[in-house]
Design a protein that fits this description.
By secondary structure, the chain is of the alpha/beta class. It has 13 helices and 11 strands. It has a 7-stranded mixed β-sheet with strand order 5-4-1-6-9-8-10, with helices on one face.
Length: 411
């Protein structure tokens, strides 16, 4: 049985009763006008009809007209301050809210208003009550923007909630300290997420080139740039979420860029390590290239398999969706000790954790004066490719078997 689609709701955004030059609706927060943010937020939450009402609605339509995100959306522009009848949600265009606030209002079964923005309300026949839920999701912020000095508070709220819930601990606590300040600046200049994906990919390629040289100093530089690449990889997502530029195509471009960096870095690591072991006449030198080629081929099969899974299950174009979807399908499926062991280590396969391990191991030789960290970097990377591939293959097999068993039992 197909799940019923949520019922669309209607929204009226009221322009403040001031001169257009003084209107907070036209103030820009993180590069996007307050009015535009409200319209796009309502759209993302599933609004079926959006009206913008006020004496200068024509001016508002003109200022929003060049935004490609609003073209063809069928927005109604009403040059009247009278509240439009039969509208589910009303809001004055002087507030910046997190997208979950729209969702909370749309799902509310009784009239309600947002305490921090009293004229943002869900209408009904009875008196509205304050909208509050103990389980309100992260990102349900509300910041009134009346004057220019309010812009910073709104921008702070946006970027305090820009990190994805699926981000790992290194990403949240370390990489974000690099990426968020960069995103806060770039959002004001119209830099797009795809442009930042390209920059991060180029940095990743440069890091791989340094690693391919096979000298300890170059490996340290390459590992440091690889960690920087992981931090920059957050910026495209932060820009997409803070400026409403997220798209399925953008997610796929980001995924392709990430995987290109992984594969190129692995190839260059193998080349560099073979050069190093040959130069120092290690006994294992002759085994490095055959092993490396085998692992790269396995890596390509893994990336291809995960990409096929995303396409086949119509998941968003991010590898995180693969793990989440597989986890849901597996449910209470029985697993063996090997899968449990690999599953407990899967956090090390996340982009932020792996990049940080690469960084630490790559600089270890420069700190200790011995190549031990370089050896670990190569062998841990090769083992990681093997373990992640086995984990994915086992997860696929277990989930399919479990789903098949459940279906047969229901029959």
């Amino acid at each position: 049985m197909n799940r019923a689609e949520p019922e669309a709701f209607t929204v009226t955004i009221h322009l403040p009763d001031v001169e257009p030059e003084e209107s907070p609706a036209f103030l820009k927060v993180a590069g996007v006008m307050v009015l535009t943010r409200l319209i796009l937020g309502a759209m993302q939450a599933g609004a079926g009809e959006i009206s913008v009402a006020g004496s200068y609605a024509d001016t508002a339509r003109s200022r929003c007209g060049d935004d490609p995100r609003l073209k063809g959306r069928g927005i109604r522009w009403e040059t009247s301050q009278t509240r439009i009848e039969k509208t589910d949600i009303h809001v004055d265009a002087n507030v910046v809210v997190g997208n979950p606030v729209w969702q909370l209002l749309s799902e509310c079964e009784h009239p309600a208003f947002v305490p921090a923005a009293p004229r943002m309300e869900r209408t009904g026949s009875s008196a509205p009550e304050p909208l509050w839920r103990p389980d309100s999701p992260t990102g349900a912020y509300v910041v009134p923007v009346i004057e220019h000095q309010d812009i910073k508070a709104a921008k702070d709220a946006i970027f305090a909630n820009v990190t994805k819930s699926t981000s790992g601990p290194i990403s949240r606590n370390l990489n974000s300290r690099i990426s968020i300040p960069i995103s806060r600046v770039l959002c004001e200049f119209g830099v797009t997420p795809n442009q930042m994906t390209l920059v991060a990919t180029i940095v990743g390629f440069i890091s791989a080139w340094f690693v391919s040289r096979g000298r300890l100093t170059d490996v340290a530089i390459g590992g440091t740039l690889f960690q920087l690449c992981a931090a920059l990889d957050r910026v495209d997502g932060e820009l997409a979420r803070s400026t409403f530029r997220a798209s399925p195509l953008g997610a796929w471009i980001d995924t392709v860029g990430d995987n290109l960096v992984y594969v190129v870095f692995a190839v260059c690591l193998i080349i560099g390590y073979e050069r190093y072991t040959l130069a120092h006449e290690y006994a294992i030198a002759g085994w490095v290239l055959p092993l490396g080629i085998s692992m790269v081929l396995l890596m390509l099969v893994l990336v291809g398999g995960m990409t096929w899974y995303l396409v086949d299950t119509r998941q968003p174009g991010t590898m995180t969706a693969v793990h989440q979807d597989l986890g849901q399908k597996m449910g209470e499926a029985p697993t063996n000790w090997l899968f449990k062991a690999l599953d407990s280590l899967k956090i090390l396969g996340k982009r932020d954790s792996f990049s940080f391990v690469v960084f630490l191991l790559s600089i270890t030789p420069m700190i200790t004066g011995t190549p031990f960290g370089y050896h670990l970097l190569f062998w841990i990377s090769m083992a990681g490719i093997l373990f992640i591939s086995i984990h994915f293959a086992m997860a696929m097999a277990i989930s399919r078997k479990h789903v098949s068993t459940v279906v047969n039992h229901e029959r």
